[in-house]
Amino acid sequence: MRIDRLIGITMYLLNRNVVSARELADKFEVSVRTIVRDVEALNMAGIPISSSTGAKGGYEILDTFKLNKQITNMDDYLFIIAALKGMCSAYDNKKIESTLEKLLAVSGCKNDNQRIFLDFGVAKEGENIPEYVHMLENAISEEYMVEFDYTDSENRTNHRIIEPLALTYKWYAWYLFGYCTYKKDYRFFKLNRINNLIITKASFEHKHTSIAELLEAQWSNDRRTYWNIKLLCKAEVKVPVMEYLKGRVLEEHETGDFIISLHYPENERMWFSLLLGFGDKVKVLEPQELKDRLLQKANEIQNLYKN
């Protein structure tokens, strides 16, 4: 409905500085011409949207404009409450619990209204993870540098001194994002690879721009080597293969056997361990390097139990 899109455009502009017509069109899945008409309608309704031209041009709402009317409904509150409860399950934070209590009070929502439940209890798993999350939250808040021993994916360990900027949970693991004084660049550090974490009393030595933009830039700057993998899988393991390896089916045979393609980092342990677990139900077709690695690992396991 158009009214929903107009409200959505208003919210989107209120939460940002300058947004191009193309970005709005892509966001709301309409044409640029439709966005132009919508902006004209919003201006006529009294919402002061200005436009600018040039490479960095676009639409923005004047800073003096505020929405005074209540536009949230019960569904909006329920989504926010579900998200907050999910955060509470991920780690212990009294401020989030307090926010949740306030929102429950002002919204009038009851537990029996909720239909979506998010449980990120897995985020608490791992030695020292809850303690490290709490320590790093404090260091980030106070802008204190931290020190720790870090073991990378190649099993190399060295000492790092970091200006911690943010914590993020992704790919079933907690990561610290910060400026590494050793690499002199921004880096991610997996919390379960950190040991001997210490919060120093040394303040940051660098000024940092938008943390959200730095995070996005770092995630998109993936330096890892990836393999394009092709597997021939038995019909009997189709459900677990698709569940855990999440490949794309290329061919299906009359027997039910199928061929899938995967795209994974070369040195990431999780998918390789899952592949080993499927045993003779999954055969690697390519690349040859992966076949060689599986043969080597199979020989190592065999030799272990021979002795």
How do you describe this structure in short?
The protein has 307 residues and is α+β, with helices and mostly antiparallel strands. Helix content is 40%, strand content 26%.
Domains (count): 4
Query: Beta-sheet strand percentage?
Result: 25-35%
Which spans have pLDDT < 50 for at least 5 consecutive residues? none
Largest sheet: 5 strands, antiparallel
Shape verdict: globular
Oligomer: single chain
User: Architecture of the largest domain, according to CATH?
Assistant: Roll
CATH topology of the largest domain: SH3 type barrels
Strand order of the largest sheet: 6-5-4-3-7
The helix tally amounts to 10
* Alpha-beta classification: alpha+beta
Radius of gyration: 25 Å
Range of helix content = 40-55%
End-to-end distance, in Å?
A: 70 Å
- What's the pLDDT, averaged over the residues? 89
Q: In the CATH hierarchy, what is the class of the largest domain?
A: Mainly Beta
- Listing every helix as H and every strand as E from the N terminus to the C terminus, the arrangement reads HHHEEHHHEEEEEHEHEEHEH
Q: Count of DSSP E strands?
A: 11
